Amino acid sequence: MNWNDNRPVDPQLLEQLLNEQSAALELFAAQWTNVPEDCVQQAFLELVRRRKPLNNAVAWLYRVVRNRAISAARSEQRQRKHESAAAGLGKTWFEPARQGVVDEQSLTEALGSLDEKQREVIVARIWGGLSFEQIGQVVGASTSSAHRRYEAGLTSLRERLGLSWLTENQTTC
After folding, report:
1. Which of 10, 31, 95, 145 has its CA 20 to 30 A from that of 104?
2. What are the distances in angstroms from CA 107 to CA 20, 94, 110, 139, 157?
3. 44 touches 17 (CB < 8 A)
4. What percent of the chain has pLDDT over 90?
């Protein structure tokens, strides 16, 4: 579907956005926070409350989820300072059922080792399906900067995982 229309958010559009984008949005938010579902839910509630139509609902959702996830991460950091028991919790990047060329643990560690800017672009592109123009809008960068971050991140992942033969087509499947 073309998400670049200015339709108001009706129940059918909301259902379609939830079905098509919620899992990728949760993965996107998981880069920053341990409560990605909350960030996604809050973004969808904000979308429903909007009175004005959007130029691009998907890119708008990514921007709102990103901002909420970063805020949640800051809140979590403050909480961890006061609760040492929570300090050892790690981030989960993948659903347990997913299997691929590389085991989940290695890929999670490799993604975690990337620069934050590269990681967010890779997740938005591969799992979110966003264009580089949309990613640029979400992260506040130009389309070419988003593309450069993506390429640099993929190069780092390939090197770290020993997958120099991996092409973009294989990473987006």
Report:
1. 145
2. 24, 9, 5, 23, 8
3. yes
4. 49
3-state secondary structure of 148: helix
Domains detected in the chain: 1-84 (no CATH), 99-173 (1.10.10.10)
Q: What is the DSSP string of 70-136?
A: HHHHHHHHHHHHH-GGGGG-----S-TT---SS-HHHHHHHHHHS-HHHHHHHHHHHTT---HHHHH
Q: Each residue of 13-68: pLDDT tens digit?
A: 889 999 999 999 999 999 999 999 999 999 999 998 887 877 888 999 999 999 99
Instruction: For residue 126, give the nearest of 17, 12, 44, 31 by alpha carbon.
Output: 31
Measured CA to CA, the distance from residue 12 to residue 22 in angstroms comes to 15
d(CA 160, CA 86): 29
Q: What's the confidence (pLDDT) of residue 20?
A: 92
DSSP one-letter code for 33: -
155's enclosing H/E stretch is helix 143-161
